Amino acid sequence: MSIEVRAFDAPLGAEVIGLDFNDPLGPDTVETINQAFFDYHVLAIRDQDISMDRFMEVAGCFGTLQSQHVKHYAHADTDKISMISPQLNDNRDGPNAKPLYRGITFHTDHSYFPKPVKATLLHAKQVPSKGGDTRFLNMHIAYDELPDAMKQKIEGVNGAHRLAGRRKKTGRVMSAEEIRTSPNAVHPLVRVHDDNGRKAVYFNPNRMDGIDGWSDEDSDALLDELEQLCCLSEYEYRHQWQPHDVVIWDNRSVLHAATDDYTEPRLLHRILLEGNESAY
After folding, report:
1. 8 Å CB contact between 21 and 54
2. Which sequence spans correspond to the domains of the chain?
3. Residue 109 in contact with residue 120, Cβ under 8 Å?
């Protein structure tokens, strides 16, 4: 098949045109998509009316599917897909629970794993008529534009990540069992991408306890400053969802955040790809 990669008028992101995931993906097509993924960090492929099984097959062309850790959101038929919908509340909240909008602060997926996930794929099963965008921030550019003093300050410094970290901002209350079985991890604040070789700021405002070995006060001061420097609109691509969109992004390169500006039903299927063996 003949495909075109068309960059967005934004600091990151591109649309892949001429691709139908119902057709077989040859090695040349997979190579083209992978290279665009490394170059643009967020890829949007419109109008992909595919089954759940085909979604998993396509994802498997680009990496190894990871089981969903929080079982509350896992699909009933497979733990390789989780469902993202504000209607999927914790059962403890009762039948009259309000919608829970997940991931509305900037974060990177599953940073609390010792080997964080490489990529996330979302398939739009149902989208509202307006609102519900997803925002992405380019952490390579954010690093490049940090003041030299901040670059020196964070070089060699590690962040401590947990599912229910001390600085957790949003999300449902995790059960004791979910917290008990969750891994904890320490990762450098300056991460060198293992495929494109570029440096990026690697932190997770919603999944961090602080800086490894630092006091809470000093950790908070540094992480708050990093958030102010990195979470800026000039580093952003904002994806406006259409039915059957497939979006894939690189968790090594970007932060992302959902928006909660809608009331109509919204359902996305999510697949995570395992991180590479050479994590940094």
Report:
1. yes
2. 4-273
3. yes
Burial pattern 129-165, b for ≥16 Cβ within 10 A else e, equals eeebebbbbbbbbbbeebeeebeeebeeebbbbbbeb
Any idea which residue has 């962040």 for tokens?
A: 159
Alpha-carbon torsion angle 229, 232, 237, 241, nearest 10: 120
Q: Domain 4-273 falls in which CATH fold?
A: Double-stranded beta-helix (3.60.130)
Q: Are 108 and 97 a contacting pair, CB within 8 Å? A: no
pLDDT digits (tens, 9 = 90+) for 250-272: 999 999 999 999 989 999 999 99
Q: pLDDT for 132-171, tens place per residue?
A: 999 999 999 999 999 999 999 999 999 999 887 777 776 6
Q: End-to-end alpha-carbon separation of the chain, Å? A: 34
Give the list of residues 6+ apart from residue 142 with CB closer than 8 angstroms, or none: 200, 201, 229, 230, 232, 235
Q: How many CA atoms lie within 13 A of 70 on its CB side?
A: 24
- CA 159 to each of CA 119, 143, 183, 210: distance values in angstroms, whole numbers, following the listed order: 20, 16, 14, 6
Residue 252 near residue 198, CB atoms below 8 Å: no
Query: Is the separation of the CB atoms in 265 and 241 below 8 Å?
Result: no
